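Why run this: before we spend reagent on co-expression, it is cheaper to look at a predicted model of the complex and decide which construct boundaries make sense. The entries below are exactly what would go into the expression plan.
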Amino acid sequence: MSLRHAVLGVLAAREMTGYELSRFFDSSAGWLWSAGHSQIYPLLGKLVDEGLVTGSEGVRGEHLRRVSYRITEAGENELQRWVGTVHQAAPEKDPFWLQAVFLDQLEPPLARAVLTAYAETQREAAERAGAHAVELRAGRTPLVRERLSRRSEDEHHRITGLKAGVFAAQAAIATTRAEQAEALVELLGD
Amino acid sequence: MSLRHAVLGVLAAREMTGYELSRFFDSSAGWLWSAGHSQIYPLLGKLVDEGLVTGSEGVRGEHLRRVSYRITEAGENELQRWVGTVHQAAPEKDPFWLQAVFLDQLEPPLARAVLTAYAETQREAAERAGAHAVELRAGRTPLVRERLSRRSEDEHHRITGLKAGVFAAQAAIATTRAEQAEALVELLGD
DNA sequence: TGTTACATGTAAGCAGTTACATGATTTT
DNA sequence: AAAATCATGTAACTGCTTACATGTAACA
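The model came back. Tokens follow.
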């Protein structure tokens, strides 16, 4: 149920084609959600059916069909309704910590390798998220610029601050994960 | 792919029926994985087919059929292979932080309500995980006891320490999530 | 006698991943 | 001329959730 609102949220910033949305959600830039194009295209059709977005066909070059999707007022309302709702969090399901709870069955050196590899990926994720927060705060990300262009000047600082705060939060959480994995290494013995 | 190894990991501690496994994974005790019984029963059948567990039929009372599942040597090997493998982490997909990145569209009081509600559930999750870590360290959880009974005395401290460490890590991560959500409240303005 | 716990399954549907399939346009 | 990028779809499969379905045993 989240992808539809992720798409609505992006389209609320600016009009996009399915291809552009696919790029945006392609496990790429360390954004907050990801999806393949095989999930995007059918979803856009459904969103059109529901009246939450409209698609306008155009062409690229002479023959290449491209459909640009824009959020409707109904779509904006639905997005706001969803954002303003307290959703109960699904029970945590992190494969790594499941794996970690069975690490006692391994030779300590192998267990250490598993833990440090995880810690490193989390350190990297933290760095990416932190860098993105800096970019956002400086107003250097294109999507936020477009979003700001339709808001009053005095809101700009608040908006970029909030969005940067979300990525700073991602960085802090990833850092805690790395630290905790490293703390487990100390308990390994040997 | 994780549920099969979660099940193998539990069965490595002791023999269980499908019903007991269902109880164990029923989103309950704040454990590390969850699944409904409709997922458990078919999976146990597959694991038997693959030779990773064996099921022995028995009865409860006069007529109630119950099958007790035990891990095989092949199952123990598969579990150890999985635990000793570095798996690349799937891209983060947390619906809450997706929601958070759109909070600028809300009236600050409503946004604050969403953030504090999340922070509170994370504080509660942290408390549950922390309490579980204490129980584990004290050796008061039944499953770990059975696990320890098949290990040498001098390993007991290391094993309980590691497992407790995993739940302490869960607590630390949940606490960071709560703190970060609370930090966002400060950026809300108004 | 009624309720709770024990016990085991199947079916429908949704979300998500990987693979299949095709073709135009731009860049090197 | 070849490769990368733009562009849009469908199909098969896996994992998971929710609902359907059935019946026994223990307890109050």
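The longest strand of chain B covers residues 53-60. Residues 1-3, 35-36, 38-39, 60-65 of chain B lie near DNA strand D (CB under 10 Å from a C1'). Bring this page to Monday's planning discussion.
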